[in-house]
């Protein structure tokens, strides 16, 4: 016990409390994107860190957040009542989140001094991590409870869901939080519980049932599923999909993004859990092997070019915070701290930089521009905005385009692996255009950038470098 207390005091000294108020986020006026309260565009680049609160101590959490901040992430997705025995397996400080497994009575203690084990409760640790994330410019996409605790081992009634939601909303109303209900489970049959939790959160945040005061979505069950069964609910600010962990070409996640993009009323859409890096493909590692950076890039560019307002990355070891002595879930290849620097994790920032380097809020998907969109892993996706067109060739296949909205274009090849941009001449775009990628084959993905020659845009991706 003395040793544990000493360890806590050392960590407290190493990780002093930090606070920062992040700008409030809202849905853009055109209903397609997120923006800060002053109207500045916000490209969501998230990491899935489901077990962050449950499994990492203060020092580890800071290491994780420092790494993701350096890599350009501005959101982390984490769960308060965690999936992996989060109600019975204590956090690193021996604390559990609930009293008697009752969500209406969160387990709290007076004080919050990490040097005093009797004071530093589970929610004090959540507070610390949220503050540490916000201090680094990272919003927390907070799941109040994994869907296991609603559907499989139910803890909640509508009444308890509202009480718990109100308590959480009030506790974190001043923090950089995006609320995410669900947790890898269907909402069908459990609508009353989730709606009550949403109402409670709004009451806690705003003091009334005002969903304009916060952002909220729903993380659905996997396998190309969407939150859209709540699409017409006032609390659902944007749709979230979980396109799952199958082969990118077979899954064709871009079609599902396009379906949500076309729904009315108009709401933003995001893939909140695509294929993780280092994940057994379709859960069949012996047959198909594991995913790697080329796979996660395909999901990211296809989804965003099909209308998503941002993207969520994940690594199979990181989401579960796999470490020595922990029971692995579906065969992670390494420990979480080793996986932080995997190639795909570092490459996601290039997508964010590309999107931020051109007029942001005018962008729309435009597949009719592509004369041969192809299918499966060869899919070529197009998006355009005010004065520019982006075309993603997932395997470097030649690109053939119909005439563009402007007659002459300055072309670039943007490399999703490095973020580098190479000039590719000027072209007459008043008639069909054919371009050959610099290289071809699996892992040789490219973005063709075509700028209106009358505009003086910087090199693509320059805004993020």
Overview of this protein structure:
With 465 residues, this protein is α/β, with parallel strands linked by helices. It has two domains: 2-356, Glycosidases (TIM Barrel), CATH 3.20.20.80; 364-464, Immunoglobulin-like, CATH 2.60.40. The protein is 28% helix and 21% strand.
List keywords for this structure.
465 residues, alpha/beta, TIM Barrel, Immunoglobulin-like, 2 domains, six-stranded parallel sheet, six-stranded antiparallel sheet, 14 helices, 28% helix, disordered N terminus
Structural class: alpha/beta
Q: Which regions are unreliable across 5 or more consecutive residues at pLDDT < 50?
A: 1-14
In DSSP terms (H or I, runs of 4 or more residues), the helix count works out at: 14
CATH-wise, what's the superfamily of the largest domain? Glycosidases
What is the terminal separation in angstroms? 48 Å
């Amino acid at each position: 016990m003395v040793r544990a207390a000493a360890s806590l005091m050392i960590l407290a000294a190493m990780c002093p409390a930090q606070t920062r108020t992040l700008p409030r986020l809202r849905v853009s006026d055109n209903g397609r994107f997120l923006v800060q309260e002053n109207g500045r565009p916000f490209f969501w680049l998230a990491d899935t860190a489901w077990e962050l609160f449950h499994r990492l101590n203060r020092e580890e959490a800071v290491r994780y957040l420092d790494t993701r901040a350096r890599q350009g992430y501005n959101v982390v997705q984490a769960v308060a009542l965690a999936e992996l025995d989060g109600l019975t397996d204590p956090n690193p400080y021996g604390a559990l989140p609930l009293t008697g497994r009752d969500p209406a009575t969160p387990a709290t203690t007076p004080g919050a001094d990490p040097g005093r084990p009797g004071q530093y409760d589970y929610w004090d640790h959540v507070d610390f991590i949220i503050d540490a994330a916000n201090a680094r410019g990272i919003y927390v996409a907070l799941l109040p409870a994994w869907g296991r605790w609603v559907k499989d081992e139910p803890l909640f009634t509508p009444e308890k869901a509202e009480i718990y939601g109100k308590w959480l909303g009030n506790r974190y109303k001043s923090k950089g939080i995006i609320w995410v209900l669900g947790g890898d489970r269907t909402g069908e049959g459990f609508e009353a519980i989730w709606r009550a939790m949403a109402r409670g959160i709004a009451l806690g945040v705003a003091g009334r049932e005002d969903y304009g005061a916060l952002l909220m979505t729903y993380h659905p069950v996997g396998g190309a599923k969407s939150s859209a069964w709540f699409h017409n609910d006032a609390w659902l600010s944007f749709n979230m999909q979980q396109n799952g962990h199958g082969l990118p070409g077979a899954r064709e996640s871009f079609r599902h993004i396009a379906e949500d993009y076309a729904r009315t009323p108009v709401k933003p859409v995001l893939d909140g859990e695509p294929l993780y890096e280092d994940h057994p493909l379709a859960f069949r590692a012996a047959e198909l092997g594991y995913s790697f950076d080329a796979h996660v890039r395909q999901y990211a560019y296809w989804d965003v070019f099909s209308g998503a307002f941002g993207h969520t990355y994940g690594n199979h070891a990181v989401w579960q915070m796999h470490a020595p002595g922990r029971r692995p879930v579906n065969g992670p290849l390494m420990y979480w701290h080793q996986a932080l620097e995997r190639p795909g994790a570092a490459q996601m920032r290039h997508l964010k930089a590309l999107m931020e380097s051109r007029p942001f809020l005018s962008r729309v998907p435009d597949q009719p521009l592509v004369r041969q969109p192809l299918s499966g892993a060869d899919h070529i996706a197009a998006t355009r905005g005010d004065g520019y067109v982006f075309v993603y060739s997932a395997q470097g296949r030649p690109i053939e385009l119909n005439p563009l909205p402007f007659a002459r274009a300055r072309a670039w090849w943007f490399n999703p692996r490095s973020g580098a941009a190479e000039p590719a001449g000027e072209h007459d775009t008043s008639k069909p255009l054919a371009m050959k990628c610099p290289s071809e084959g699996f892992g040789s993905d490219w973005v063709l950038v075509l700028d209106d020659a009358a505009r003086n845009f910087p090199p693509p991706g320059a805004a993020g470098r």
